[in-house]
């Protein structure tokens, strides 16, 4: 991890946060951990499809300092206008200059169709749908966020929840690996261009969430099944709360270079 020019990220003032994929798993855990660090008059917008589970996340984040808004949204289908509107609506009654820091966590993610072998991938419609959610609309949501906070761009912090799979191929996960690689590189390019925006690519390690169940239920790749079966049997999967704590620690310490890929295990 780069450290010489580390500048802490301060969330102890009024902070505005958007978090995608916050209805369960790592996203919910990051929301809860994040809410503990936010200063008075902070505002959080949490997004996913499942409204009941989002309400539970909002409940878990309750604090005197934070107002939590949750909105059900299918991020694979939402238009740029929908995403702009959901951010603007959450800010009703506020001015962007009210916030000392504005943070967006791009945590939403899916695995795609694991039942087709890599050499047999041909359903472009399905691949497009995968990329819509995991790459294109992540970029578009980020753009809407930057438009809203253009006036105070130097207060913006971006966290992309990435994966080891963005930098290391994993058998049986061609959509996931290629999507994560593309998404991470977009944030690296943005960080290269906008040095005053803090951008972190955080890789959470293997975490016990519904994604793991999905891999074991759906994959046709024996190597992938073996990897995750042994992670589980050896108790090597992290709890979402543990990696969420680490994510916030890395973020707050600010010891990362623009767009750096920082993994849970980097200094464990
Ligand atoms: N688990 C791991 O081992 C692991 C490892 C490395 C990286 N990651 C990354 O960490 C992030 C979170 O993963 P997780 O393990 O916590 O997965 P998860 O439990 O499956 O959670 C995924 C989240 O994304 C939301 N989501 C999925 N499709 C959506 C859609 N169409 N529109 C809006 N929201 C949608 C889900 O909410 P709804 O279903 O309510 O929409 C849920 O809140 C992902 O980016 C993943 O790639 C996970």
From TrEMBL:
<comment type="subunit">
    <text>Homodimer.</text>
</comment>
<dbReference type="InterPro" id="IPR051721">
    <property type="entry name" value="Biopterin_syn/organic_redct"/>
</dbReference>
<dbReference type="GO" id="GO:0004757">
    <property type="term" value="F:sepiapterin reductase (NADP+) activity"/>
</dbReference>
<keyword id="KW-0521">NADP</keyword>
<protein>
    <recommendedName>
        <fullName>Sepiapterin reductase</fullName>
        <ecNumber>1.1.1.153</ecNumber>
    </recommendedName>
</protein>
<dbReference type="InterPro" id="IPR006393">
    <property type="entry name" value="Sepiapterin_red"/>
</dbReference>
<dbReference type="GO" id="GO:0006729">
    <property type="term" value="P:tetrahydrobiopterin biosynthetic process"/>
</dbReference>
<comment type="similarity">
    <text>Belongs to the sepiapterin reductase family.</text>
</comment>
<dbReference type="GO" id="GO:0005737">
    <property type="term" value="C:cytoplasm"/>
</dbReference>
<keyword id="KW-0560">Oxidoreductase</keyword>
<dbReference type="Pfam" id="PF00106">
    <property type="entry name" value="adh_short"/>
</dbReference>
<dbReference type="InterPro" id="IPR002347">
    <property type="entry name" value="SDR_fam"/>
</dbReference>
<keyword id="KW-0963">Cytoplasm</keyword>
<dbReference type="InterPro" id="IPR036291">
    <property type="entry name" value="NAD(P)-bd_dom_sf"/>
</dbReference>
